[in-house]
Design goal:
The chain is mostly helical. 74% of the residues lie in helices and 0% in strands.
Amino acid sequence: MSNDKFKNMDYETALNKLSSLISDLESGTLSFDDTLTAYKEAFEYYTFCSDYLKTAGEKIKEMNAKMSQVSPFLED
């Protein structure tokens, strides 16, 4: 993701912001323009969180593959 606001952001911070945006959207109190802006921003945070989890999952698979070479208890 090329957006600079995510450059040094951790997963928990992004997830909290996404949750806050969803709450705002669900409240029904935003103007039409604010709703569009919040929806776009929520989608960016969703994409960041989704990509973050995908990368974490890939790292875990790699570590498990390395560990299975050392320990037969971690084989798939």
